[in-house]
Protein backbone atom coordinates (compact mmCIF):
# COMPACT_ATOMS: atom_id res chain seq x y z
CA UNK A 1 0.00 0.00 0.00
CA UNK A 2 1.36 3.40 -0.96
CA UNK A 3 1.52 6.21 1.62
CA UNK A 4 -1.76 8.05 1.05
CA UNK A 5 -0.40 11.20 2.74
CA UNK A 6 1.65 11.87 -0.36
CA UNK A 7 -1.39 12.27 -2.59
CA UNK A 8 -3.27 15.48 -3.33
CA UNK A 9 -6.91 15.36 -4.40
CA UNK A 10 -6.77 17.40 -7.63
CA UNK A 11 -4.16 15.31 -9.47
CA UNK A 12 -6.06 12.16 -8.49
CA UNK A 13 -9.28 13.61 -9.91
CA UNK A 14 -7.44 14.22 -13.19
CA UNK A 15 -6.16 10.63 -13.20
CA UNK A 16 -9.65 9.29 -12.52
CA UNK A 17 -11.21 11.33 -15.33
CA UNK A 18 -8.48 10.15 -17.72
CA UNK A 19 -9.26 6.55 -16.81
CA UNK A 20 -12.99 7.12 -17.35
CA UNK A 21 -12.35 8.69 -20.75
CA UNK A 22 -11.30 5.27 -22.09
CA UNK A 23 -14.93 4.17 -21.68
CA UNK A 24 -15.95 6.85 -24.21
CA UNK A 25 -18.51 8.75 -22.11
CA UNK A 26 -19.95 11.92 -23.60
CA UNK A 27 -18.11 15.20 -22.88
CA UNK A 28 -21.15 16.25 -20.84
CA UNK A 29 -20.81 13.16 -18.62
CA UNK A 30 -17.11 13.82 -17.99
CA UNK A 31 -17.88 17.45 -17.19
CA UNK A 32 -20.55 16.33 -14.70
CA UNK A 33 -18.01 13.98 -13.02
CA UNK A 34 -15.56 16.86 -12.64
CA UNK A 35 -18.21 19.24 -11.26
CA UNK A 36 -19.36 16.76 -8.62
CA UNK A 37 -15.83 15.88 -7.52
CA UNK A 38 -14.71 19.51 -7.29
CA UNK A 39 -17.90 20.68 -5.55
CA UNK A 40 -17.52 18.19 -2.69
CA UNK A 41 -13.77 18.70 -2.57
CA UNK A 42 -14.28 22.44 -2.05
CA UNK A 43 -16.78 21.84 0.72
CA UNK A 44 -14.28 19.61 2.55
CA UNK A 45 -11.42 22.07 1.98
CA UNK A 46 -13.55 24.96 3.25
CA UNK A 47 -14.44 23.23 6.53
CA UNK A 48 -14.32 26.08 9.08
CA UNK A 49 -12.34 24.01 11.59
CA UNK A 50 -9.36 23.50 9.23
CA UNK A 51 -9.86 25.63 6.08
CA UNK A 52 -7.26 25.33 3.32
CA UNK A 53 -6.99 25.86 -0.46
CA UNK A 54 -8.51 23.09 -2.56
CA UNK A 55 -5.15 22.59 -4.29
CA UNK A 56 -3.63 21.67 -0.91
CA UNK A 57 -6.32 19.13 0.06
CA UNK A 58 -4.82 15.68 0.59
CA UNK A 59 -6.64 12.44 0.02
CA UNK A 60 -6.31 11.40 3.67
CA UNK A 61 -8.64 14.30 4.59
CA UNK A 62 -11.49 12.49 2.81
CA UNK A 63 -12.77 10.45 5.72
CA UNK A 64 -16.27 9.09 6.16
CA UNK A 65 -16.93 11.86 8.67
CA UNK A 66 -15.73 14.71 6.41
CA UNK A 67 -17.62 13.26 3.45
CA UNK A 68 -20.86 12.97 5.43
CA UNK A 69 -20.57 16.61 6.48
CA UNK A 70 -19.76 17.77 2.95
CA UNK A 71 -22.66 15.80 1.45
CA UNK A 72 -25.03 17.25 4.06
CA UNK A 73 -24.05 20.79 3.00
CA UNK A 74 -24.09 19.81 -0.68
CA UNK A 75 -27.60 18.33 -0.37
CA UNK A 76 -29.28 21.34 1.24
CA UNK A 77 -30.10 23.32 -1.94
CA UNK A 78 -30.19 20.40 -4.40
CA UNK A 79 -32.67 17.82 -5.67
CA UNK A 80 -32.35 14.16 -4.73
CA UNK A 81 -31.30 13.22 -8.28
CA UNK A 82 -28.33 15.62 -8.17
CA UNK A 83 -27.24 14.29 -4.77
CA UNK A 84 -27.55 10.69 -5.96
CA UNK A 85 -25.49 11.43 -9.08
CA UNK A 86 -22.74 13.07 -7.00
CA UNK A 87 -22.73 10.11 -4.59
CA UNK A 88 -22.31 7.68 -7.50
CA UNK A 89 -19.46 9.77 -8.91
CA UNK A 90 -17.61 9.75 -5.59
CA UNK A 91 -18.26 6.05 -5.13
CA UNK A 92 -16.67 5.38 -8.53
CA UNK A 93 -13.78 7.71 -7.68
CA UNK A 94 -12.99 5.80 -4.48
CA UNK A 95 -13.35 2.50 -6.32
CA UNK A 96 -10.63 3.76 -8.68
CA UNK A 97 -8.41 4.81 -5.74
CA UNK A 98 -8.81 1.45 -4.01
CA UNK A 99 -7.99 -0.43 -7.22
CA UNK A 100 -4.82 1.63 -7.62
CA UNK A 101 -3.76 1.00 -4.01
CA UNK A 102 -3.95 4.70 -3.07
CA UNK A 103 -6.49 4.26 -0.26
CA UNK A 104 -7.23 1.12 1.78
CA UNK A 105 -11.02 1.24 1.44
CA UNK A 106 -14.09 3.05 0.11
CA UNK A 107 -15.73 5.30 2.76
CA UNK A 108 -18.84 5.99 0.66
CA UNK A 109 -20.76 3.10 2.27
CA UNK A 110 -20.89 5.30 5.39
CA UNK A 111 -22.45 8.23 3.47
CA UNK A 112 -26.22 8.11 3.01
CA UNK A 113 -27.54 8.15 -0.54
CA UNK A 114 -31.08 9.30 -1.36
CA UNK A 115 -33.38 6.85 -3.12
CA UNK A 116 -34.40 8.41 -6.42
CA UNK A 117 -37.25 6.77 -8.35
CA UNK A 118 -36.71 6.59 -12.13
CA UNK A 119 -38.16 9.67 -13.85
CA UNK A 120 -41.43 8.98 -15.64
CA UNK A 121 -41.16 8.37 -19.40
CA UNK A 122 -41.90 11.32 -21.67
CA UNK A 123 -43.16 9.91 -24.97
CA UNK A 124 -44.80 11.99 -27.67
CA UNK A 125 -48.41 12.70 -26.78
CA UNK A 126 -51.14 11.44 -29.11
CA UNK A 127 -51.67 7.95 -30.49
CA UNK A 128 -50.91 8.89 -34.11
CA UNK A 129 -48.28 11.55 -33.44
CA UNK A 130 -45.22 9.42 -34.41
CA UNK A 131 -46.84 8.47 -37.71
CA UNK A 132 -47.79 12.11 -38.42
CA UNK A 133 -44.23 13.18 -37.68
CA UNK A 134 -42.67 10.62 -40.02
CA UNK A 135 -45.14 11.38 -42.82
CA UNK A 136 -44.51 15.13 -42.59
CA UNK A 137 -40.72 14.80 -42.59
CA UNK A 138 -40.68 12.32 -45.50
CA UNK A 139 -42.12 15.04 -47.76
CA UNK A 140 -39.83 17.72 -49.15
CA UNK A 141 -40.81 21.05 -47.62
CA UNK A 142 -40.44 23.97 -50.09
CA UNK A 143 -40.05 26.35 -47.14
CA UNK A 144 -36.69 24.79 -46.26
CA UNK A 145 -33.57 26.40 -47.69
CA UNK A 146 -31.66 23.12 -47.79
CA UNK A 147 -34.18 20.26 -47.73
CA UNK A 148 -32.90 16.74 -47.21
CA UNK A 149 -35.94 14.63 -46.27
CA UNK A 150 -34.07 11.31 -46.58
CA UNK A 151 -31.57 12.36 -43.88
CA UNK A 152 -34.22 13.85 -41.59
CA UNK A 153 -36.36 10.72 -41.92
CA UNK A 154 -33.52 8.34 -41.06
CA UNK A 155 -32.73 10.31 -37.88
CA UNK A 156 -36.33 10.10 -36.66
CA UNK A 157 -36.74 6.48 -37.77
CA UNK A 158 -33.62 5.33 -35.88
CA UNK A 159 -34.85 7.03 -32.73
CA UNK A 160 -38.47 5.85 -33.05
CA UNK A 161 -37.78 2.32 -34.34
CA UNK A 162 -34.51 1.51 -32.54
CA UNK A 163 -34.69 3.76 -29.46
CA UNK A 164 -31.28 5.38 -29.89
CA UNK A 165 -29.98 8.16 -27.66
CA UNK A 166 -28.52 11.36 -29.10
CA UNK A 167 -24.91 10.33 -28.44
CA UNK A 168 -25.59 6.87 -29.88
CA UNK A 169 -26.93 8.37 -33.10
CA UNK A 170 -23.87 10.58 -33.47
CA UNK A 171 -21.53 7.62 -32.89
CA UNK A 172 -23.06 5.49 -35.65
CA UNK A 173 -20.94 4.63 -38.68
CA UNK A 174 -22.09 3.40 -42.08
CA UNK A 175 -20.70 0.01 -41.10
CA UNK A 176 -22.73 -0.05 -37.88
CA UNK A 177 -25.56 -1.60 -39.90
CA UNK A 178 -24.91 -5.11 -41.10
CA UNK A 179 -26.24 -8.62 -41.54
CA UNK A 180 -28.05 -10.53 -44.23
CA UNK A 181 -31.44 -9.39 -45.60
CA UNK A 182 -34.08 -10.28 -43.06
CA UNK A 183 -31.49 -10.44 -40.28
CA UNK A 184 -30.19 -6.89 -40.35
CA UNK A 185 -28.97 -5.31 -37.11
CA UNK A 186 -27.44 -2.06 -35.97
CA UNK A 187 -24.51 -2.13 -33.55
CA UNK A 188 -24.87 0.64 -30.96
CA UNK A 189 -22.15 1.99 -28.65
CA UNK A 190 -24.19 2.74 -25.54
CA UNK A 191 -23.54 4.30 -22.16
CA UNK A 192 -20.61 3.05 -20.12
CA UNK A 193 -19.01 1.45 -23.15
CA UNK A 194 -21.79 -1.17 -23.35
CA UNK A 195 -22.43 -2.34 -26.92
CA UNK A 196 -25.78 -3.75 -27.97
CA UNK A 197 -27.25 -5.10 -31.20
CA UNK A 198 -30.73 -3.96 -32.23
CA UNK A 199 -32.75 -5.74 -34.93
CA UNK A 200 -33.49 -3.62 -38.01
CA UNK A 201 -36.81 -4.40 -39.63
CA UNK A 202 -37.13 -4.20 -43.45
CA UNK A 203 -39.02 -0.88 -43.28
CA UNK A 204 -36.24 0.83 -41.32
CA UNK A 205 -33.65 -0.82 -43.55
CA UNK A 206 -35.28 0.72 -46.65
CA UNK A 207 -35.19 4.15 -45.00
CA UNK A 208 -31.45 3.76 -44.32
CA UNK A 209 -30.75 2.54 -47.87
CA UNK A 210 -32.73 5.46 -49.32
CA UNK A 211 -30.75 7.90 -47.20
CA UNK A 212 -27.38 6.44 -48.27
CA UNK A 213 -28.42 6.61 -51.93
CA UNK A 214 -29.36 10.29 -51.52
CA UNK A 215 -25.99 10.85 -49.86
CA UNK A 216 -24.13 9.32 -52.79
CA UNK A 217 -25.96 11.68 -55.13
CA UNK A 218 -25.05 14.69 -52.99
CA UNK A 219 -21.46 13.99 -52.01
CA UNK A 220 -20.20 11.00 -54.04
CA UNK A 221 -19.60 7.31 -53.33
CA UNK A 222 -16.47 7.96 -51.24
CA UNK A 223 -18.64 9.44 -48.48
CA UNK A 224 -20.33 6.10 -47.75
CA UNK A 225 -17.27 4.13 -46.66
CA UNK A 226 -17.92 1.80 -43.72
CA UNK A 227 -15.90 3.94 -41.31
CA UNK A 228 -17.69 7.17 -42.29
CA UNK A 229 -20.12 8.80 -39.85
CA UNK A 230 -23.65 7.70 -40.70
CA UNK A 231 -25.31 11.08 -40.12
CA UNK A 232 -24.05 14.13 -42.00
CA UNK A 233 -24.96 17.78 -42.08
CA UNK A 234 -25.88 19.59 -45.29
CA UNK A 235 -22.19 20.26 -46.03
CA UNK A 236 -21.21 16.58 -45.84
CA UNK A 237 -19.52 16.85 -42.42
CA UNK A 238 -20.45 14.58 -39.49
CA UNK A 239 -23.53 15.86 -37.72
CA UNK A 240 -22.80 17.31 -34.27
CA UNK A 241 -24.81 17.47 -31.07
CA UNK A 242 -26.23 20.97 -31.57
CA UNK A 243 -27.02 20.30 -35.21
CA UNK A 244 -28.86 17.09 -34.38
CA UNK A 245 -30.91 18.77 -31.65
CA UNK A 246 -31.85 21.60 -34.01
CA UNK A 247 -32.76 19.11 -36.75
CA UNK A 248 -35.19 17.26 -34.45
CA UNK A 249 -36.77 20.50 -33.22
CA UNK A 250 -37.26 21.70 -36.81
CA UNK A 251 -38.91 18.37 -37.69
CA UNK A 252 -41.42 18.90 -34.88
CA UNK A 253 -42.20 22.38 -36.17
CA UNK A 254 -42.64 21.20 -39.76
CA UNK A 255 -45.03 18.47 -38.59
CA UNK A 256 -46.97 20.94 -36.43
CA UNK A 257 -46.69 18.81 -33.29
CA UNK A 258 -44.62 21.00 -30.97
CA UNK A 259 -47.52 21.05 -28.49
CA UNK A 260 -47.31 17.24 -28.23
CA UNK A 261 -43.61 17.11 -27.32
CA UNK A 262 -42.97 16.90 -23.55
CA UNK A 263 -40.97 19.82 -22.25
CA UNK A 264 -37.25 19.08 -22.07
CA UNK A 265 -37.52 15.77 -23.94
CA UNK A 266 -36.97 16.62 -27.66
CA UNK A 267 -34.96 13.70 -29.10
CA UNK A 268 -35.44 11.64 -25.94
CA UNK A 269 -39.21 11.79 -26.50
CA UNK A 270 -38.66 9.61 -29.59
CA UNK A 271 -36.69 7.05 -27.57
CA UNK A 272 -39.35 7.09 -24.86
CA UNK A 273 -42.04 6.57 -27.51
CA UNK A 274 -40.15 3.51 -28.77
CA UNK A 275 -39.94 2.07 -25.24
CA UNK A 276 -43.54 2.89 -24.34
CA UNK A 277 -44.86 1.20 -27.46
CA UNK A 278 -42.73 -1.86 -26.69
CA UNK A 279 -44.41 -2.06 -23.29
CA UNK A 280 -47.87 -1.49 -24.77
CA UNK A 281 -47.27 -4.34 -27.22
CA UNK A 282 -46.32 -6.77 -24.45
CA UNK A 283 -42.52 -6.62 -24.21
CA UNK A 284 -41.24 -7.53 -20.74
CA UNK A 285 -38.78 -5.48 -18.70
CA UNK A 286 -35.82 -7.68 -19.63
CA UNK A 287 -36.48 -7.25 -23.37
CA UNK A 288 -36.87 -3.47 -22.98
CA UNK A 289 -33.66 -3.35 -20.95
CA UNK A 290 -31.66 -5.12 -23.66
CA UNK A 291 -33.08 -3.07 -26.53
CA UNK A 292 -32.64 0.32 -24.83
CA UNK A 293 -29.31 -0.45 -23.16
CA UNK A 294 -30.51 0.32 -19.63
CA UNK A 295 -28.08 -0.42 -16.81
CA UNK A 296 -30.93 -1.17 -14.39
CA UNK A 297 -33.97 -3.39 -14.79
CA UNK A 298 -35.99 -0.95 -12.64
CA UNK A 299 -35.63 1.72 -15.34
CA UNK A 300 -37.13 -0.64 -17.91
CA UNK A 301 -39.86 -1.76 -15.51
CA UNK A 302 -40.87 1.88 -15.20
CA UNK A 303 -42.20 1.86 -18.79
CA UNK A 304 -44.39 -1.16 -18.06
CA UNK A 305 -45.79 0.36 -14.86
CA UNK A 306 -46.54 3.67 -16.55
CA UNK A 307 -48.21 1.86 -19.44
CA UNK A 308 -50.34 -0.14 -17.00
CA UNK A 309 -51.38 3.08 -15.26
CA UNK A 310 -52.30 4.67 -18.60
CA UNK A 311 -54.36 1.64 -19.58
CA UNK A 312 -56.23 1.75 -16.27
CA UNK A 313 -56.86 5.49 -16.69
CA UNK A 314 -58.26 4.83 -20.18
CA UNK A 315 -60.59 2.14 -18.83
CA UNK A 316 -61.64 4.45 -15.99
CA UNK A 317 -62.53 7.16 -18.51
CA UNK A 318 -64.82 4.82 -20.44
CA UNK A 319 -68.36 6.26 -20.48
CA UNK A 320 -69.91 2.86 -19.81
CA UNK A 321 -67.88 2.52 -16.62
CA UNK A 322 -69.11 5.94 -15.47
CA UNK A 323 -72.73 4.95 -16.20
CA UNK A 324 -72.21 1.73 -14.28
CA UNK A 325 -70.81 3.73 -11.40
CA UNK A 326 -73.90 5.90 -11.24
CA UNK A 327 -76.14 2.83 -11.40
CA UNK A 328 -74.28 0.96 -8.67
CA UNK A 329 -74.13 4.11 -6.57
CA UNK A 330 -77.91 4.66 -6.75
CA UNK A 331 -78.58 0.98 -6.07
CA UNK A 332 -76.25 1.02 -3.11
CA UNK A 333 -77.97 4.07 -1.71
CA UNK A 334 -81.37 2.38 -2.16
CA UNK A 335 -80.13 -0.78 -0.49
CA UNK A 336 -78.72 1.22 2.36
CA UNK A 337 -82.03 3.00 2.94
CA UNK A 338 -83.90 -0.30 2.94
UniProtKB/TrEMBL annotation:
One of its GO terms (biological process) is DNA integration. Residues 119-316 form the Tyr recombinase domain. Keywords: DNA integration, DNA recombination, DNA-binding. One of its GO terms (molecular function) is DNA binding. Residues 7-98 form the Core-binding (CB) domain. The keyword Chaperone does not apply. InterPro entries: CB, DNA_brk_join_enz, Integrase-like_cat_sf, Integrase_catalytic, Integrase_recombinase_N, Integrase_SAM-like_N, Tyrosine_recombinase_XerCD. Gene3D superfamilies: 1.10.150.130, Intergrase catalytic core. The keyword DNA-binding applies. PANTHER family: BLL1584 PROTEIN, PHAGE INTEGRASE-RELATED. This is Site-specific recombinase XerD. It comes from Plantactinospora soyae.
Amino acid sequence: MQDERNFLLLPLIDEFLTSRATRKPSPHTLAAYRRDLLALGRLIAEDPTTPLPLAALEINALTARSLRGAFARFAAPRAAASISRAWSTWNSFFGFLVADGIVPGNPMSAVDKPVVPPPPPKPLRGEQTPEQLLAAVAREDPRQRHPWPERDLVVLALALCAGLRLAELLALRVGSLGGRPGERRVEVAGKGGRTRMIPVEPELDRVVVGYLESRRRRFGARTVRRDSALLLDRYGAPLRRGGLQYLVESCYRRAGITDRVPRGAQLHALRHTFATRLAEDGANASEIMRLLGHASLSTSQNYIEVTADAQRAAVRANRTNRSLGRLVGSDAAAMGSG
